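Regression test attached.
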Amino acid sequence: MSVKTLEIDGRMLTGRTGETVFAVAWDHGIQIPRLCHVGGLSDVGACRLCLVEIEGRKRLQASCLTLIEEGMVVKTATPKLKSHRKLIVELLLAERNHVCSVCVMNGECELQDLAASHGVDHVRLRYQFPSLPVDTSHERFGIDHNRCILCTRCVRVCDEVEGAHTWDVCGRGTASHIISDLGEPWGESDTCTSCGKCVQVCPTGALFSKGKTVAEMRKDRGFLKYIVTAREKKQWIG
Amino acid sequence: MGERIVIHPVTRIEGHAKISINVDDAGEVSSAQFHVTEFRGFEKLCEGRPFYEMPGLMSRVCGICPVSHVLASSKAGDRLLGVEVPSAAVKQRRLVNYAQLLQSHALSFFHLSAPDLLLGMDSAPEKRNIFGVLERDPDFARRGIRLRQFGQRIIELAGGKRIHPAWGVPGGVLHSIGAAGRDEILTWIPEALESMDVAISRLKPLLDSLPQEIENMGNFPTLFLATVTPEGDLEYYDGVIRIVDAEGNTVADGLDPMRYATFLGEASEEWSYVKFPYYKPLGYPGGKYRVGPLARLNVARSAGTPRADREMREFKQRSQGAVCQSFHYHLARLIEMLHSIERIQELMEDPEILSEHIRAKAMLNRLEGIGSCEAPRGTLFHHYHVDSDGLMKKANLLIATAQNNLAMNMAVEQTARRFVTPRSIEEGMLNRVEAAIRCFDPCLSCSTHAIGQMPLIIELRNHAGDLLHRLERS
């Protein structure tokens, strides 16, 4: 297997050919912020929080989709990047109705953690206050579109791991939203297996277990590692 | 030409309000109104949300009495689930309710009303606050602050945090107080009981020195409504509703709180954001009633704890029939604090308080649920309608302060007529009008479903709205 050497934040690092800048950075303890990436699923570059500066390239690059190259010089935490990331978090908070104080994920939310770590003590943009529904038609789970950041983790885990592809994205631009099947209520979905993987990978309180109260929801993503590893090693095949 | 005196905002209360005093052509007070000027809209904003979020959401109605809203909301949720709440969970809920009664009453008495009582209604406004009390009597003020701290500490130990503990859930509570928490609470009890003795023995002679205020600041006949045990004793968490009249006669007894809408109506007036609840059989406004500490002591036969019973027997002798002087809300509040401490001690000595069987789980089994409990300021009702997926379709909150609204307006008018001389307004006169309101310890954040400290502005205006005189307290 060929390896490539590159510089990230002044450190000379080595990664395997085909690995992303994001993966190599995390392997070496450089924790580039992210919301849409989750280990074991494909990357889509939806959240743009993992943007990095690469010498010789004019545009900022989503590190989760950028493959390493020999001699690459990458910076992950410049003032410009920090400023952009802070703005992205503010945009996410302003776009829908994120009310941490009454959210099931208060204290455990990845978006909340990012806001705290990026110094988002207020939002400089005007809140959009869209009127969005909550779907609790499923027997065990609910989806609150007010808290959805369209990271599409649920779409990918349902498609790539569970194989059901119940979830997808409908609409364009600010009208984009997650739907089950062809827009039916979740509880009426023919494809949903009620496995709950989507709930566990959701970074916010958008997908939740019914019956949970404020700050009570905890998510466990440990299952992904076992399933993906087992699949790669073909441990479950005859 | 008629004139109007406006006290805006009213200070040392919880929330925003103003008082208008209308003056007739002869220069006498003709009428007065207590306006609540804030609007919250909680009933609207919870629409479309899952019902099991309600305790956490509704606790945000108020930072002083979040526990009451958590409890009423959790109880409404219990009904929606259709479950029997484990008895250990009921004890946890009772414990925190008593703790809140203690801390909220301590705030009302020591922080908000003691300055008027200890320093005098006409004392300098800049001294008439908790710091003034600290200067005058450091031990008394310290005891008040410690009592409030004790109540808040119990809420923190049981509920996880002092303000807005979202630990109550439909079907029970999230966690129990634990052995360490119980042991800590027990160490507070002797000091708390001693402080109550000090406070009650301090208040009684003060009351003897204020006969004019007692007789003219909210002294009138009304009905009194409160929750009692089926035997007729004080009850704060779960019981039946009893209503007595000014003579102390029982008007209605054994009423099911679930059927509150059959005997309580809500009227609206265009000059206030708070509704005007009334007892339906007597109509509006004839069916005015009072809730809260005074009502509870008037309605209940006894407290059920030895120290509070002694005080309650003496309290009931202050008047033939029901005690109608709103000024006695203060003493009633202290007796309730004493009772709460005794009950907290009982609960702490009950081994079941450590049980971990504290939550019953179920799916949605009803589409309508009502929860009620006794909040510090009176009887509280939460009434929810949900759809088949458990999303809120409609909520109605009947708040204690709102139920005192008619009585508060009467108290303001009575006090203004007796103490305010429009031709020569003095600050102490207007403070008495505010003090009449403070007797009821209104929580306007709750009743409009903000909290703030703002300067007091008094404006004297004629009918045309021209400003004739302005006093400002900053």
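Expected vs. actual: identical. The helical segments of chain A are 21-27, 79-95, 110-117, 153-162, 197-201, 222-232.
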